[in-house]
Amino acid sequence: MVPSGQLDFNLQPLLERLDQDELSQFKSLLRTLSLQDELQHIPQTEVEEASGKQLAEILTNRCPRNWVEMVTIQVFDKMNRTDLSERAKDELKEAALKSLQENKPPSLGITWTQESKRENLEEIQQHLKEEEEPGKQDKYRSIMKKKFCQIWEKNFWPGASENVHIVTQRYETLIPFCNPKMLTGPFPHTVVLHGPAGIGKTTLAKKLMLDWTQDNLAETFNAAFYLSCKELNHKGACTFAELISKNWPDLQDAIPEIFAQAQKVLFIIDGFDELRVPSGALIHDMCCDWQKQKPVPVLLGSLLKRKILPKATLLITTRPGTLRELRLLVEQPLFIEIEGFLELDRKAYFLKHFEEEVQALRAFDLMKSNAALFHLGSAPAVCWIVCTCMKLQMEKGEDPAPTCQTITSLFLHFLCSQFTSPPGSCPGPFLQVPVTALCLLAAGGIWTQTSMFDGEDLERLGVKESDFHPFLDKNILQKGKDCEGCYSFIHLSVQQFLAALFYVLEREEEEDGDSCRWDIGGVQKLLSKEERLKNPSLTHVGYFLFGLLNEKRARELETTFGCQVSLKIKQELLECRVKSTENKPLSVTEMQEVLYCLYESQEERLVKDAMAHIKETSLHLKNKMDIIHASFCLQHCRNLQKISLQVEKGVFLENDTASESDTQVERFQNDEHVLPFWMGLCSIFGSNKNLIFLDISQSFLSTSSVKILCEKIASATCNLQKVVLKNISPADAYQNFCITFGGHKTLTHLTLQGNDQDDMFPSLCSVLRHPKCHLQYLSLVSCSATTHQWADLSSSLEINQSLTCLNLTANELLDEDAKLLYMTLRHPKCFLQRLSLENCHLTEASCKELSSALIVNQRLTHLCLAKNALGDGGVKLLCEGLSYPECQLQTLVLWYCNITSDGCNHLSTLLQQNSSLMHLDLGLNHIGIIGLKFLCEALKKPLCNLRCLWLWGCAITPFSCEDLSSALSSNQNLTTLDLGQNSLGYSGVKVLCDALKLQSCPLQTLRLKIDESDARIHKLLKEIKDSNPQLTIESDQDPENNRPSSRDFIF
């Protein structure tokens, strides 16, 4: 938290005028107005126990100045201590005038002397008040009123004015200085309106300017200035005074008076994302003098950082892509997300646009069926495009449904429908040049992140204003409403679409350097992650480019505009998007993008070509459109080997009683639309013979979707070998899957994890008893099974002869349940080799039965008992069983089992007796110096067969290293030693150094807690590696890898 520094009023005497009750009330109200973290870093007791003087010191030195000034006045007003709030306000005004005097340029016209008293101050205030009316500020207000009234009248789409008014009113109430119900005061605000293109941010900003000119904000602000970043991109270096008086230069003479009351000035900075400036440049160059000439970005950056007029109120509009940079510039902003047309607004717009309600609702439902298109519909311009396109189709008796399948098809149909030639006639040649010029303008703007173009832009791109007349007439390109000689596209998405079209249009006599001269990147650059991070619009251009690879659409373009469309770019796109990642599987996000791009094309041959290279995929299905995309593409997969699925809540509603859909009928209707696509997706099991791995995790399915999936798996020709099912609903899904896997002879690995698996146990036991069962690995994690069900499972294990690995992690086994399992281990036909009973609530009492089972069982080689409170007594009982020569156990994991030095003594005795134990994990047990000494004694003995010893986080200190070094010098078998999360320090590592340098040391892997800042340790480690090249020394920086031994119990 940045401290406030000096306040502009003296807080201490104000607080000292409060009695004890009033001070307590002040503190209480202070907490309620701490919206972010202004007070969170200060202990509440410290505030509550502070006197008036102490509280003033806390707030002055440890909280943001602007917040303290603002909230103090608010609290005083709430307490009806207006005498104190007025005094604070007077001091703020006085400080503002003094600040102006100290930074006053020579042209200010006010003489200040060291002898200036309060009388002079009052005289100046009176002088400023007289100048205000009826002076130049009123003339400025009148000019702005005329300008913004004209802009406001032009600012709406046909039939949208009422909708736009509703939207602007909705968001105005969230802005503090627009809502009289919200607390106000003489303090600076920073409000950021953010949201995607075309949803009303600029409209709202201009409405606020109009409100000010009409005196709706007159009490709050004496002056308001509107700065459009689009326009400012074309302005050269100037002073800040010149910048804000560009609409009326005579205003410059009144600026000193305006700035004298900076807390009554509003700056609206519109389209921050449009500002052409290198990333981070706004932060480095600052200017405090509003009379000094500087580049426009420097002046804006200084205003945002409050180097110029720190008391002013700022309202900024921007798209989400520049929010990160904006956060670095502004202090304590209030962020308001502008969402544009909500669903009801969109519906109302459609009902107005169409004459017949049936047509309006049909068109609205079609737009809603495409999630991406519906999202774009929050912009009024897109609603107009969709309505215009579909209304025209309906009037012709055409079905608009195929058009709404993808955004590309809708935008293409809209564009072509504006220039459709009469039947039988040829397209006019006059459209070839305009469409080429328009696409060039769009692409050039996308790459330079420009949406407002002036004469310089046209000249740079080599296009003429006359080229655009056909598109200006159709409202696709528009003349700037408040910028003479400027042009912009109807919506950013239209510009992105036309930019994509630029890449497929064949241009005659195109020189190789043209694209470079125009600053337009090639396809590879367009699709690169680095470029798309810098310029998010490129992602959408890529989507449209895939959409234009459809041959039918290409012909439609050629027919309409008489231009040649080339699809040679197809292979290049596939190379960049799919084939370049053949050697590694695509991430979930990358796969989602690929599927979206291919679906946008609606070109089956392209999809088949792309899917031929996919062998492994991970899908995160968040909505209906994700299923549609996956179904469309993956049906063409033939070489898929692994698939992972995650289905979000809300995709299937059949079993979702908490869904927003009120009735079961509505939920079924929703699923009726989704299930056909789900069925198409599930067809992959029949078309991919090499599909061997299926993972469905964290998924909210439905009874019907599970049934379809199981039917497809049961009838499939694929050879599933490994299946992972984790945390799936509904509860009976596990049972249905187990029934499906009965007799599935290729299945070797099955993981079932979740809390509601009770019903599956009979089906699972049937799978294990089936004569064709070849299951080798079974993982049952977090099952809430009964004793009876554990008994069934135990008896099934005695019949099954294929299962060798059983993982029962995180199951609460009662003593009776554990006994049943141990009896199974004693059974001569039990073939288990690896068993994990991690975190199964086992105690010392259960170790006796387990120990006797280990004596009898000659097949078990790996046993994990991690996270069970066995204690030293439990270890003693286990060692009794392990000491028998019949016991063949090789790996024992006792991680976090409450073992101390006594337990290590028992293990040491065991290891010295030619035990079969070769891997021992004692991680996170407090064995200390004595415990390690016992283990070292065992390591020195020739009969100790230990190969791996894991001692992660065992409270080993530098004092133990002497024993360890001695043991390593004589031991001939130990190849892995884990000492991670033990603070050995430089002295401990130095002691180990001599043993580790020996060529005879068998150790191959050593893990240590390494202090990266200690150069001495790094030097020692280098010496060890130089002397013993076969030794690998690892740092335990990765907390995920604190248990390497667990790898033996998972697949």
UniProtKB/TrEMBL annotation:
SUPFAM superfamilies from the entry?
DEATH domain (SSF47986), P-loop containing nucleoside triphosphate hydrolases (SSF52540), RNI-like (SSF52047)
Which parts of the sequence belong to the NACHT domain? 189-387
* Highest taxon above the source species: Eukaryota
**Is this entry keyworded Nucleotide-binding?**
yes
Q: Name the InterPro entries on file.
A: AAA+_ATPase, DAPIN, DEATH-like_dom_sf, Leu-rich_rpt, LRR_dom_sf, NACHT_NTPase, NLRP_HD2, NLRP_innate_immun_reg
Q: Which Pfam families match?
A: LRR_6, NACHT, NLRC4_HD2, PYRIN, WHD_NOD2
Keywords attached to this Swiss-Prot or TrEMBL record, sorted alphabetically, are: ATP-binding, Leucine-rich repeat, Nucleotide-binding, Repeat
Q: Is Transmembrane a UniProt keyword of this protein?
A: no
Q: Which residue ranges are recorded for the region named Disordered?
A: 1031-1051
Pyrin domain location is 1-98
**Cross-referenced PANTHER family, in alphabetical order?**
NACHT, LRR AND PYD DOMAINS-CONTAINING PROTEIN 12, NACHT, LRR AND PYD DOMAINS-CONTAINING PROTEIN 2
UniProt lists the family membership as follows: Belongs to the NLRP family.
Can you name this protein?
NACHT, LRR and PYD domains-containing protein 2
Q: Which organism is it from?
A: Equus przewalskii
